[in-house]
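To assess whether ligand presence alters the predicted conformation, the chain was also submitted together with (2R)-2,3-dihydroxypropanoic acid. Input:
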Amino acid sequence: MLKDPRVVVTRQLPERIEARMKELFHAELRDPDGPMSKSELLAAVVKADVLVPTVTDRIDAEVLEHAGDQLKLVANFGVGVDNIDLEAAQRRGIVVTNTPGVLTEDTADMTMAMILAVPRRVVEGERLVSSNQWEGWGPNTMLGHRIWGKRLGIIGMGQIGTAVARRAQGFGLSIHYHNRNRLPISAEEELAATYWESLDQMLAHMDIISVNCPRTPATYHLLSTGRLSLMKPDAYLVNTSRGEVVDEAALAAMLKQRKLAGAALDVFEHEPAINKQLKELSNVLLLPHMGSATIEGRVDMGEKVLINIRTFVDGHRPPDRVIAKLIE
Ligand code: DGY
């Protein structure tokens, strides 16, 4: 049981979450907002009993080794934990938690919007109108590609991948997936989903690929130059997971050479920096890592963080504990 724990929060959170954080704990909130620098993070872990980071904080081995013995919990505000060195945390006996479940539907909505947007040229159309260049309807104007009847290949059929599949079914896409573990037959039947043990084989046969797997050492550059080259030249790539799963430079080069039809990306390898070539292409939709950005979702994430901290400081196992081995 931790008495009056000092909780350091690295970013501004929804007002109602911050208010509750202050009621429950000795909370140090971020003001003004903005990602912490490395030296700020190092200073934070020296004094915090509990650290609440986000995806913009790199809680690497150096930061964790610098932490004082008082740091017992890293309660991540986010479901992805690729920003935290889990092995180093484990070595130091620091518990890590995340916020699973509450951003599944929001992220799946955004993924679906992106799946529709690039083949149907939604953003290009908007630019045509807002730049006053539209000269009226024409039989050959702004033609995109039909969604209905196409093949969607989902890489990573966890909660978000499954929620994407449910939506995609309604748009007449046939569902294919590659995952470390095959789903139970009942789940495959419900989604009318075809399992591909070989990612390479799946890539070669799909019209649209959606990346929904977490970023782990095993998924770093999973979509390498070699794998991207397996995709059909008229296929599209959508990524709402983590930028590092795709070799961004290779993707940009292929899109430029029209070896792929287009891409919709919400995440990037070196956020907030984005490969310059990508910004110059018309067949690409780029979004600022906003897949889970709803007011409701952020409040739910905050609630999860509060519950994880509260349970932990009361001496219990927090509900969203992340174990390094399980996500490899
Ligand atoms: C997540 O929770 O992983 C989102 O990408 C925001 O960090």
